[in-house]
Design brief:
Blueprint lengths: L20 H7 L1 H8 L6 E5 L2 E6 L2 E4 L2 H69 L1
Antiparallel strand pairs: 1-2, 2-3
Helix pairs in contact: 1-2
Length: 133
């Protein structure tokens, strides 16, 4: 047994797999699959007749009545967003038309007042001319 021997010899570190979760989260699974040439299929779990898949950070039912209900909910949410956008657009158009109508009403009232003042001034001028004759 040598007196000054090296008793500590480090073990070799195994090669680490590429961590694709960061790339997937940052750029999306489509980008990761394209750039890294890997197949990133969603994680699926089947418990009896019930099957769920993990996509975009959520467990989504893939089969059965729950899956159909989930798909229907997604469709209804999309339709709701579309209707809300249409509603907002119609409200904006309504506000613009209301502003335009208010402006035209104010202009018409001003024009009417000017016409009345002109008519009064013309009638007073006619009276003064008649009085002078």
């Amino acid at each position: 047994m040598p007196l000054f021997s090296n008793k500590f010899t480090p073990k070799t570190i195994p090669v680490r797999r590429n961590d694709t979760s960061v790339i997937r989260n940052e750029f999306g699974s489509d980008y990761a699959a394209k750039e890294l040439s890997i197949d990133l299929s969603p994680l699926k779990i089947k418990l009896g007749d019930f099957e769920v898949s993990f996509e975009e950070g959520q467990w989504i039912p893939a089969s059965g009545r729950a899956g159909a209900a989930h798909k229907e909910n997604l469709r209804l949410k999309k339709e709701l967003e579309q209707l809300e956008e249409e509603n907002n657009m119609l409200r904006l158009k309504f506000e613009i038309l209301l502003d335009m109508m208010t402006d035209k009403t104010v202009e018409a009232e001003q024009q009417q007042q000017e016409d009345m003042q002109r008519a009064q001034s013309l009638s007073s001028l006619k009276k003064t001319k008649k009085q002078k004759w």
